[in-house]
């Protein structure tokens, strides 16, 4: 049983309880263990904290030795956003691929197997799924993280994902409320704005969250976006009309409200993380996510002290902070008492590859002869958004090299991409791999030039397939997970 440090008063303990910080390294630092003893109830894990499943098991055991009911959270969406397999690529396709298949039972199975793997490693809170309706094709941060652009499709798959994940004893955290799909700005860099009117928001953005709440989602994550129809003055994370009046009141949600990362520029550059955290709790949030970028004891101390000072000055009601802390403890109790299934027959270790194969769409396949000789793979590589990161490999080269030994690859971007590809490829067959061609004019121009010179080029689109299919064979994978690359490579090599 957890024993708190005797010198920690209730107010300070509550201020620590509502924080979800990160840290660096693959073992828990002394400062983090000390804070757990003082009242910290949650820890967030990122790719930098994970080297192997065995190491992760040891890490979560180390945390629980200090506090047995600690919430261990992770940003494991599967697909492009993976922390468990950050250096290899995910064994699960992401939401867009699951939406493309549109089989809710498959989505439930994928989420259940992902949850099983998380639970086996000691993780009990997943900052997923994304319930955003990707209504803006130019969205720079959601894209393949969304189940799609159709509201009803997103709603049914969000509910299935929540059900599957929580069947494994891992709490779902549905995000990014009230919906990040209709944005053209990445909230990691600036504050996005959605100018849809209230009726559109109710029918489009809010529908998947209603479905998630009905499915019993244990947590909901707020978005750092300004929605004037709901609150013209404050981003959703800091808005009482959005978090308390809408989410709690109108939608009837009673679980944990978690903020998106407070060090993201949409909040940090405008309010600062201390002021932002106080405003978020006052607005109705229960947990402050921080640690993707700021991951040290000083950050925890600053936020703890800001919350304590706000209560003592009368700016933040002590009862609101206490209520938030109690919701964190309530979720911790749920995770501690919800056992994951243990029967071997329930594990579907191949379900991710099965889903990736089903999602794949090939245009021109009837006239295509599979390759028998090693090709040259040209990856036209855009700048990765922060949610995805640049640590995780993507593409089809590694999987093609396994099937067609001798396959070589290069990464290209900008105006010189086509010329550099042709020079490197020589007389080998070219496989051009793109990601969101419709969002990158240089990428479309590179494909134009490449296909003009080499019309037998195979094109693999691993982002949102908005551009018209072209090439001798065009494959849409609906995501860049490792299993999506494998499914594409199998079609190219005819296996």
Write a compact overview of the structure shown.
By secondary structure, the protein is an alpha/beta fold.
Structure characterization notes:
The chain has 495 residues and is an alpha/beta fold. It has helices at 10-17, 30-38, 53-66, 95-101, 104-120, 151-167, 198-203, 206-214, 240-250, 265-268, 273-283, 297-313, 318-337, 351-359, 397-403, 417-425, 441-453, 482-493; strands spanning 19-20, 42-45, 71-74, 125-126, 171-177, 219-222, 256-258, 288-289, 361-363, 376-380, 408-412, 430-434, 458-461, 473-476. The chain has a 6-stranded parallel beta sheet, sandwiched between helices. The longest helix is centred in the middle third of the chain and has 20 residues, at 318-337. The N and C termini lie far apart (54 Å).
Would you tell me the structural class of the helices and strands? alpha/beta
- CA radius of gyration is 23 Å
The strand count comes to: 14
Mean pLDDT: 93
Biggest sheet, spatial arrangement of strands: 2-3-4-5-6-7
What is the global morphology?
globular
What's the main sheet like?
6 strands, parallel
Count of helical segments? 18
Q: Multimeric state of these chains?
A: single chain
List the helices and strands and how they pair.
Blueprint lengths: L9 H8 L1 E2 L9 H9 L3 E4 L7 H14 L4 E4 L20 H7 L2 H17 L4 E2 L24 H17 L3 E7 L20 H6 L2 H9 L4 E4 L17 H11 L5 E3 L6 H4 L4 H11 L4 E2 L7 H17 L4 H20 L13 H9 L1 E3 L12 E5 L16 H7 L4 E5 L4 H9 L4 E5 L6 H13 L4 E4 L11 E4 L5 H12 L2
Parallel strand pairs: 1-8, 2-3, 3-4, 4-5, 5-6, 6-7, 10-11, 10-12, 12-13, 13-14
Antiparallel strand pairs: 9-14
Helix pairs in contact: 1-12, 1-13, 4-14, 5-6, 6-8, 11-12, 14-18, 15-18, 16-17
């Amino acid at each position: 049983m957890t024993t708190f440090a005797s010198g920690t008063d209730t107010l300070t303990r509550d201020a620590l309880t509502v924080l979800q910080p990160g840290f660096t390294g693959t073992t828990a630092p002394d400062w983090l263990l000390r804070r757990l003893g003082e009242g910290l109830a949650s820890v967030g894990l990122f790719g930098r904290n994970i080297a192997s499943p065995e190491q992760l098991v040891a890490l979560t055991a180390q945390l629980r030795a200090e506090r047995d009911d600690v919430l261990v959270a992770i940003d494991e969406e599967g697909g492009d956003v993976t922390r468990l397999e950050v250096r290899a690529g995910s064994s699960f396709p992401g939401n867009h691929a699951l939406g493309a298949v549109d089989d809710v039972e498959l989505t439930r199975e994928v989420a259940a197997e992902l949850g099983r793997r998380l639970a086996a490693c000691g993780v009990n809170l997943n900052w997923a799924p994304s319930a955003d309706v990707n209504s803006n094709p130019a969205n720079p941060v959601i894209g393949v993280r969304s189940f799609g652009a159709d509201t009803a499709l997103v709603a049914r798959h969000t509910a299935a994902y929540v059900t599957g994940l929580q069947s494994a004893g891992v709490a779902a955290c549905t995000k990014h409320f009230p919906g990040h799909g209709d944005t053209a700005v990445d909230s990691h860099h600036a504050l996005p704005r959605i100018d849809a009117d209230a009726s559109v928001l109710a029918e489009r953005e809010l529908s998947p969250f209603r479905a998630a709440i009905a499915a019993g989602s244990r947590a909901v994550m707020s978005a750092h976006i300004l929605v004037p129809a709901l609150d013209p003055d404050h981003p959703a994370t800091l808005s009482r009309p959005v978090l308390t009046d809408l989410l709690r009141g109108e939608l009837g949600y009673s679980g944990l409200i978690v903020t998106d990362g407070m060090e993201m520029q949409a909040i940090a550059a405008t309010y600062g993380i201390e002021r932002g955290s106080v405003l978020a709790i006052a607005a109705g949030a229960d947990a402050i996510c921080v640690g993707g970028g700021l991951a040290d004891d000083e950050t925890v101390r600053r936020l703890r002290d800001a919350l304590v000072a706000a209560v003592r000055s009368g700016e933040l009601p002590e009862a609101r902070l206490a209520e938030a802390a109690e919701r964190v403890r309530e979720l911790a109790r749920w995770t501690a008492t919800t056992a994951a299934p243990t029967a071997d027959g329930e594990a579907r270790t191949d379900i991710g590859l099965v889903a990736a194969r089903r999602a794949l769409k090939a245009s021109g396949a009837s006239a295509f002869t599979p390759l028998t000789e090693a090709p040259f793979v040209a990856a036209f590589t855009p700048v990765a958004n922060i949610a995805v990161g640049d640590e995780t490999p993507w593409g089809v080269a590694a999987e093609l090299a396994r099937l067609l030994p001798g396959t070589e690859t290069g990464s290209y971007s900008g105006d010189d991409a086509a010329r550099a590809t042709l020079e490197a490829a020589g007389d080998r067959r070219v496989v051009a791999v793109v990601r969101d061609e419709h969002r990158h004019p240089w990428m479309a121009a590179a494909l134009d030039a490449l296909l003009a010179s080499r019309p037998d080029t195979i094109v693999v689109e691993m982002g949102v397939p908005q551009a018209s299919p072209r090439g001798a064979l065009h494959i849409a994978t609906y995501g860049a997970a490792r299993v999506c690359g494998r499914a594409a490579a199998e079609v190219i090599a005819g296996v």
